[in-house]
Specification:
single chain; 0% strand; 426 residues
């Protein structure tokens, strides 16, 4: 088969306008703000009051986050599959992005009014499902419409993750919002911004040129090409899961680490957490943007993915050597740099491995789900590690080792360019 056919039947290079990137980044800002603000601050505060012992609060947080995350992971590829097959006059991504935003808003309102860990967990499941549906549609836009800008778009989505935490936690802490008011503000944010950006982003009507070329090849080969049978793609999914477990070990229980690991007074813990989040955010944004743009030019995404995971691993070593707030602040910057670069470049690397334009949303939903599964398993396993030794040293040791393992697995991925996007304005 010729190189022309391997690349989807077209050698065209498509570049979207600057406003496409603006709306895309804003959409991801809303997604990450409403997903991570409860994870970092609101849910731990709600669940820390359920028992007289702090370790019970840690365990409840791990369970609630894990159940909610698992629901989102199961739904994401299903929503992506339905989005791939949607044929409506509104587009195939837009209806799912809007529907997911509305469902997430409803879930946030329910979580804010829930009482007790069981009800909080059930409401958080609704939120997680809504976020996953919207995320599946948004991620597919990278493969649908971009080619040479995939690194930049992946960096936008990754950097929005860190900025979203600052926007959410910063607003709550600085404005002194109650738990119920915080969830209401988050619900309004995703409802307005998620819906508006879904309307403003273009959503090309299928079939586009890459799909037409693929179907022509199928008539000759009578075979359907799937990324799921590609060893490099599946290895990347596993490595994304592993590295995100390492990240979750180092971030999801930070509030508890400040309170009970280095004994920060409760009155100061939220402010100190905000400082760590800001440091983490600055390095996530800088690293994801810089490294994402570098790989768009060089094309060497695998090397940067491996290096980024190793940088993340170094953050756990720093805390193990010196478990105090200053060292934790330094580790936050190191972890932010490693994780920001990793998430941007590994997502762009995944789009290079896609084989079937008819399955963009499903396949990229699996890429997101691999990361989300790591983020949900991490808190649960992390809580178990903390409970096992009655402290946090084993947690940060595991964060280091797991991140190194993820870097090693990425070395077995063999990148190529496998799909071509449709014109963004169609």
């Amino acid at each position: 088969m010729s190189d022309h056919l391997r690349r989807g039947g077209s050698a065209a290079r498509v570049r979207v306008p600057r406003m496409w990137m603006v709306w895309f980044t804003l959409a991801w800002l809303a997604i990450w703000t409403v997903q991570l603000t409860p994870v970092q601050l609101l849910l731990p505060l709600q669940l820390d009051t359920q028992s007289g012992h702090w370790i019970d609060g840690v365990v409840w947080s791990g369970l609630v986050l894990s159940v909610g995350g698992l629901a989102g992971i199961v739904v994401a590829p299903l929503a992506g599959r339905f989005s791939d097959r949607t044929r409506s006059r509104f587009g195939r991504r837009r209806p799912w992005a809007i529907g997911g935003s509305v469902l997430a808003a409803i879930g946030l309102l329910l979580t804010g009014t829930a009482d007790g860990p069981v009800l909080v967990g059930a409401a958080w499941v609704v939120t997680s499902v809504g976020v996953s549906v919207a995320s599946a549609a948004l991620t597919a836009l990278i493969a649908d419409q971009l080619d040479d800008q995939r690194g930049a778009a992946s960096a936008a989505a990754s950097s929005a993750q860190a900025v979203g935490i600052v926007v959410g936690v910063g607003a709550i802490v600085l404005l002194g919002l109650s738990t119920g008011a915080s969830y209401a503000v988050l619900a309004g944010f995703i409802l307005v911004v998620g819906t508006a950006t879904a309307v403003l982003l273009p959503d090309p009507r299928p079939p586009h040129q890459a799909v037409i070329a693929l179907r022509e090849r199928r008539e000759l080969t009578r075979a359907r090409i799937s990324s799921l049978v590609d060893p490099s793609f599946t290895r990347l999914l596993v490595s994304r899961f592993i590295v995100n477990v390492g990240n979750a070990f180092g971030t999801s229980l930070l509030l508890f680490f400040l309170l009970y690991g280095i004994m920060i007074p409760a009155a100061e813990a939220e402010d100190r957490l905000l400082v760590l989040i800001v440091i983490y955010t600055v390095f996530v944004v800088l690293a994801s943007i810089v490294v994402g743009m570098i790989t768009d030019r060089s094309g060497d995404r695998r090397m940067w993915t491996v290096v980024s995971a190793l940088v993340q691993a170094a953050s756990g070593v720093i805390i193990l050597i010196s478990p105090n707030f200053t060292a934790t602040a330094v580790a936050a910057g190191v972890m932010g740099a490693g994780y920001g670069a990793y998430m941007a470049v590994s997502l762009a690397l995944a789009t290079d491995l896609l084989l079937d334009p008819d399955d963009h949303a499903r396949d990229l939903s699996l890429v997101n789900s691999a990361a989300n599964l790591g983020q949900l398993i991490g808190p649960l396993l992390g809580a178990g590690l903390v409970a096992l030794v009655g402290g946090f040293w084993l947690l940060f040791l595991a964060a280091t080792l797991v991140s190194i393992l993820g870097a090693g697995l990425t070395l077995t991925v063999h990148p190529r360019r496998a799909s071509i996007a449709a014109p963004a304005g169609q």
